[in-house]
Each structure stands twice: as C-alpha cells, then as structure tokens.
Specification:
The complex is a heterodimer of chains A (about 425) and B (about 300). Chain A is α/β, with parallel strands linked by helices. Chain A has 2 domains: about 290 residues, no CATH class; about 110 residues, D-Maltodextrin-Binding Protein, domain 2 (3-Layer(aba) Sandwich), CATH 3.40.190. Helix content of chain A is about 70%, strand content about 5%. Chain A is built from 19 helices and 4 strands. A 4-stranded mixed β-sheet of chain A has the order 2-1-3-4. In chain A, helix 15 packs parallel to helix 17. The radius of gyration of chain A is 30 Å and the shape is elongated. Chain B is an alpha/beta fold. Chain B has 2 domains: about 160 residues, Rossmann fold (3-Layer(aba) Sandwich), CATH 3.40.50; about 60 residues, Alpha-Beta Plaits, CATH 3.30.70. Chain B has 10 helices and 14 strands. In chain B, the strands form 3 sheets. Chain B has a 6-stranded mixed β-sheet with strand order 6-7-8-3-9-10. The longest helix of chain B is centred in the middle third of the chain and has 16 residues. The radius of gyration of chain B is 23 Å and the shape is globular. The relative contact order of chain B is 0.14. The chains are: A alpha/beta (about 425), B alpha/beta (about 300). The interface between A and B is medium-sized, with 21 and 25 residues.
C-alpha cells in the first residue's frame, strides 16, 4: 500500500511541477524578480536615471551661499545635488531653466533673518523639497545665531535631540520600538510569498480533487486506494510543491542579486538600504528572537500548509465542479488575507487581548503569532499554544473531515452541501 | 467466484438496494439490468468496496472484498473515468500501478491491447485528443490491464461503432474463456441477450426477475408469432381471443399472444394462405423488461 501512496504523491507532484503553467509562471517570476532588483539599470537603459543629480542654482541676495552650500553638503548624503551660484538675473535663469534644475533665491529679512523662493519647471519630489527646506532652515539658524551673538555650541546643544537611554524591565518583552520600523519595511515583503504559496496550495489540492471527481476517475482511484490515503497523498504532494516553489523564489532572489552585482547598477537592495535595516535588527535585539522564532515558525508553516491542504481537500470533495470549489475556497482565501493584513498591522495592536487570541487560531496563527513574538507582544508560551491549537485542529480534521471526504468524493448531488457535511460527520 | 449475499443499502429512508443476492461463477457473464436509479451503480460500488452495505456481504473467491482484492477487479464505469489531460500511456500506467502492477508489465500489456484494438499510434496522445470511441477503448483497456478475476462492465459499448463493438465483444469473450467473472450492465437489451447466461432485473433496488436468461424467456408466457406470406386473413387472426396485437414490418407480421396455447388457432388460419414463414418465438428481453418494470410502476 505504501507503494501506491508514494506513486499517487509522485503523480500528483509531477502533474503540477511538470505542467506548462508552472514553468511559464516561474519564468515570469524569475524575470519579474530580476527586473525588480535591477529596476534602476532598466530605467537608465530606457533613458531615465535614478542617479541623475538635481542642479540647484542659488541666487544669493543675502551673502549666505557658503553656509547654505555647507549645510546642503551635510544633508546630501547620497550626492543627489549639484549646487552652483547663479550670477545672472532670476528672470534670465528662468528662461533657460531645464527640468532637472531648481532656482533657490535667498533674500535677507530684518525680522525673519532670511526668506527664500524656490522655482522649478515642474512639481518636485517631497524628499528633494525636504532636504532644501532643511538646508535653508539650518542656514537661517546660523544667520540668526550670528546676528544675535549666540555661541555655536550653545545653539547646537539647544537644537540637538534629547538623549534617551532605553530600559525595559520585563525581560520577556524586551524588544524595543525600532521593531515597528522593521515590521513596516521588511515583514510585508517576507510574508507576501507565503500568502501566495497558500493560494497555490489550496488551488492545487482543490483543483486536482475536483478534476478527478468530475471526470469520474475518482471511482477507479478510490476503488484501489482508501480515501484517507488519497487525501494524504494530495496533502503531501501539495506541500512538497509549495516548498519547491518557495525554494525557487529564494533562488530567484539570489540570482537577481547576483545579476545586479554583475551589472553594477543600483539594486533594490541599495534602494531599501539593507545596511540600515540590519542596523535596526541589531538595535532591536531581534537576532536573539529569531533563534527562537525561526524553528517554531518553520514547524508552524509546515503544519499550516497541512491544515490548509486538508481543508481544501475536504471542501473540494463536497463539490461537483470547479466553479463550486472556487466559491467554497473563497472563505479560506479571505481568512488568509485577513491573517496577512493583521500581521502587517500587528505593531498597532500592542497589548490587545483580541489580537493575542486571534494569534492562536489555525490559518491565522502562522501569520500573526511569529509577528507578535518578534514585536514582543506574545511569549514563546503563546507561540507553543498556537502550535498546539494547530495540531488539535489537524487532528479534528483527520478524525471528522476524513468522514466528510469519504462521503463527499463519490457524491455527485449538487444541493445541500452543509447538510451533507454534517450528515457525514454524524455517521459512524 | 463472486457471491453477493442479501445486501441492503439505505440512504436515509430510501432503500437503494433491497436484500439482493446473486452469484457469478468463474468464466460466466452475468447481466445486471434495471432502469435508471434502480440501484445498479450502488450495487457496483458495494461490490467494489466503495460503499459499505447496511446488511449482507460480498465475497470474491471466498474473501471479503478489501483493497487487496480490488487489485483483481476491473471496472468500466458508465461515464468515462479518464483523466483527459494525461496521455494514453500515462493513464494506463496510472490505473495499472494503482492495481499493483509494475510499469514494465503495464507497458507490455498496453502494447498488446493497443495493437489488438488497432490504436497503437495513439499511445502517446492525450486522452482529450481522442474520439469518443477510442476513449471508450482506452477505458476498457484500463479496466482489464490487471487481467481481472472480476470485471464489471457498465455500458461498455457507449460511443462505439459496430466494428469496434465487435473488437470489444471478442475481448470480453476471451476474458470469459480465461475464467474471468463478468458482470454486464446495459440499457441495450440485445447486448444482454447476446452476452449473458444469467441475469437479475432490479426495480427500485429489488430483484423482480432473476435466473438463467433462457429460463426467464421460456417461462415468460407471452410469445411472438412471426408470419410471412400472402393471402393471410389478418382480420380473422385479430379476432382470436388471446391475441394481443398484430403489427406488420416489411411484409412480415408479428402477432403477440397471451400464451403459446393460442399458436395452433393462429396456425389454422395462416395455413389457408400462401405462408412462407411461421415461427413461434419467445418474447424479447426488451419486451420482458418493459412489461416487468412497467408492471411494478403501475
């Protein structure tokens, strides 16, 4: 019987992994990920340029050019600006102004020390505006300081940020506020592929069972292997398939990164500033959390895949065509979507009992529980509770869901789906 | 030998199969008849072990049917049970492996049957690309690839032209000769008359006729008298008590009578004309079926 189980699993896995759509999807994914990692090189190739500098033409009517230049230099970490002193009349400069040029007119003022006018052909991006604004404010401060005879050190001490030494007495909840930044930048990207894999998994299991049912092959298959073996082979094959797809996605990211290194362009890695994220990870003591969270999360992911596959299989057994299955799988999709968004927004729910309880629920726990743990909102015990609940759910699915599956796969009446389900559960 | 003993299957209050019993010996073709919804599919599913009967038991060669025994059963379902995206070879390997066969053995047997059914060139073609008739042949091959001890045929000739019907018929006779027990179900009574030595007729899950086909037909009182010739006094025949109907088809009269005792009276009239044919025949299975099923409904 083991031979039949492994054969069914292999057959089911190969049917997906060797299908045209799988190959096409992966080619598209590879191209998309490589393109995303090398977006600036691509834009440059078509004539755009992320590295092009904004040219600032300063019309200095207050004799503060050197101060402004120095301040801008300090703020211009990525070397995005090229600054020149405009010697012509403003109107003359305006006439020849190109789209990558800005005119900053700086005027002296008796009350406000300095006023300024910013002139451009088009609307400018907010980051550029903020940097210029900050440079002008700093210049104004220096001018004001000199006018009022204030010592530079005194001003620096007044205007600097307050120094905070952070201490959290609860050792189990010792992650700090830097995690919010990590969660908002890194986490949505990390769990999006997982959400995609769940969709693949549910559709693979459901689609195959529906196909076997609608073609009446099910009668022959179930005549030779038990419904339990049949369902388990689908669950295993679909899990292996999504794990393969997950590994391929990681591989594509590595390839994309290597391509970006080879091309020497600005990669998405440099755009999101991996270095600063790593700094944040260090600051936030996430490293020690990851040692605990990763093994538990891996077990939880695998068990959640099993749970999703079981439910998809059981639901598919009650349907008579793929349209019925698409309707029945919608609630699963919505639940996993809710889990995805709750995980992204988890940082907002600090201390909420509701979100803590939600993190115990199967289907949602895989998204929310590890997130809350990294944020320090739940403990290892809570994660273990989520795991236990998940295992119990799988046990219930195997005990009662299999009855539904056994009754459903050979039933072709389209009405009273829920009545059939409860009747099958009650049957001994 | 297959023995079905007093099986009953209920779905809630509905009785799908009611205390049904029959036996199919090795090398015997057995007919299971019934109108739609009579309980044939339920009976097949119970035999295959797909459904559990509420009462009774089914044994094959003395053993209760489980997943080891189903390796020795072949089943041609009424609706085609083929995964149409697979190729012919993949499909047969799939079902063959589920029957516990090795790949090499499956391929050897597949080549033989494809050659015999004159479709060797379709081995690597997808099922969905084949005609209905060829799909039916593939379904038949998938059911017999394991050289079954018991073969269940539910409408095996669907979509086949007469030439291909003959190919399948010959294959069925060969299996019979090798000792395979065969259960045959069809709505086309001429196939049942052609194939089956014994049969059972189900109405609402209950067996209303069972036994040897020859006994069923000879015990059925109504007869058909076939007469051909000229100057036959048909009106006089119609007036005889016990004559049910007289119909004509291409110069041949079919006179249905209540029982065979009417035959001499008809012969006395017929012999006055120029008769070239006079034959007292049993009623067809089709007529027996219609009357038996119709009688129950009335």
């Amino acid at each position: 019987m083991n031979k039949k189980f492994w054969y069914l699993t292999k057959m089911s896995f190969n049917k997906k992994a060797k299908s045209k759509w799988f190959i096409i999807t992966n080619i598209i994914l590879l191209i998309f990920i490589v393109a995303l990692f090398n977006i600036s090189t691509i834009i440059e190739f078509f004539g755009g340029d992320f590295d092009s500098k904004t040219k600032l033409i300063v019309v200095d009517n207050a004799s503060v050019y050197d101060i402004f230049d120095a301040n801008l230099e300090t703020l211009n970490e990525d070397d995005d600006f090229e600054i020149t002193l405009g010697n012509e009349n403003v109107e003359d400069i305006k006439e020849n102004l190109s789209n990558d040029e800005l005119i900053v007119v700086i005027n002296g003022d008796n009350e406000e020390y300095l006023t300024s006018e910013l002139i451009s052909n088009e609307k400018i991006d907010s980051l550029t505006y903020q940097i210029i604004l900050q440079a002008l404010n700093s210049t104004k401060s220096v001018v004001g300081m000199m006018s009022e005879g204030i010592d530079a050190n005194v001003l620096a001490n007044i205007s600097s940020n307050i120094t905070i030494e952070r201490t959290i007495l609860n050792e189990e909840n010792n992650t700090d506020e830097n995690m919010d930044m990590v969660m908002s930048t890194v986490f949505p990207t990390l769990i999006l592929p997982f959400f995609m894999l769940i969709i693949f998994l549910v559709q693979m299991v459901g689609g195959e069972i529906c196909e076997e049912k609608t073609t009446r092959s099910m009668e022959i298959i179930i005549g030779n292997v038990s419904p339990k073996m049949h369902l388990m082979s689908k669950v295993l094959a679909s899990n292996l398939f999504v794990i393969l797809q997950g590994i391929l996605l990681i591989l594509y990211c590595v390839i994309a990164y290597l391509v970006s290194l080879a091309l020497g362009g600005a990669s998405i890695g440099s755009m999101v500033d991996v270095g600063s994220i790593l700094d944040m990870l260090n600051l936030s003591s996430i490293g020690s959390s990851l040692i605990i969270v990763i093994p538990i999360a891996i077990v939880m992911i695998i068990l959640s895949f099993v749970a999703y596959a079981l439910v998809a299989g059981i639901l598919a057994s009650m349907t008579v065509n793929i349209e019925d299955f698409n309707q029945l799988q919608t609630p699963i999709m919505l639940i996993s979507l809710a889990g995805y968004y709750l995980a992204i927004m988890a940082a907002m729910f600090d201390g909420s009992i509701f979100i803590r309880i939600i993190s115990y629920l199967p289907f949602l726990s895989v998204f929310i529980s590890p997130t809350l743990f990294i944020l320090g909102q739940v403990t290892v015990i809570d994660m273990i509770i989520s795991l236990v609940v998940l295992i119990l759910f799988i046990y219930v699915m195997l005990k009662f869901g299999l009855k539904v599956y056994k009754a459903g796969i050979l039933n072709y009446s389209s009405g009273k789906v829920w009545s059939k389900l409860f009747k099958a559960i009650r049957e001994r | 030998m297959l023995i079905v003993k007093n099986i009953t299957k209920k779905y809630g209050k509905n009785v799908a199969v009611d205390n049904l019993s029959f036996a199919v010996a090795d090398g015997e073709i057995f007919g299971l008849l019934g109108e739609n919804g009579a309980g044939k599919t339920t009976t097949f599913r119970i035999i295959m072990g797909l459904l559990e009967a509420n009462a009774g038991e089914v044994t094959l060669d003395g053993k209760k049917i489980d997943y080891n025994e189903t390796d020795h059963i072949g089943f041609v379902t009424e609706e085609r049970s083929l995964l149409t995206k697979l190729s012919v070879q993949e499909q047969i390997e799939f079902y063959g492996t589920l029957k516990g066969l090795e790949k090499e053995e499956i391929d050897k047997r597949l080549d033989y049957w494809l050659d015999r059914f004159e479709i060797s060139s379709y081995k690597t073609r997808k099922i969905k690309e084949l005609s209905k008739g060829n799909q039916q042949k593939i379904q038949f091959i998938s059911a017999i690839i394991n050289e079954p001890k018991l073969l269940i045929l539910d409408e095996p000739f669907t979509g086949l032209d007469p030439i291909n019907v003959k190919l399948i018929k010959d294959a069925i006779y060969d299996l019979k000769k090798k000792g395979t027990s065969i259960i045959f179900s069809s709505h086309q009574m001429e196939y049942i008359e052609d194939f089956c030595e014994k049969l059972v007729l189900l109405v609402k899950g209950h067996a209303i006729l069972e036994g040897k086909l020859s006994d069923i037909k000879s015990n059925y009182a109504k007869k058909n008298i076939m007469v051909k010739g000229s100057n036959i006094e048909i009106d006089a025949i119609k007036k005889i008590k016990g004559v049910i109907s007289v119909t004509e088809n291409q110069g041949e009269y079919c006179i249905k009578v209540e029982d065979k005792s009417i035959a001499p009276k008809i012969f006395n009239i017929v012999k006055k004309g120029d008769v070239t044919k006079y034959d007292v025949a049993d009623a067809s299975l089709n007529e027996i079926f219609i009357e038996a099923v119709g009688g129950i409904h009335e």
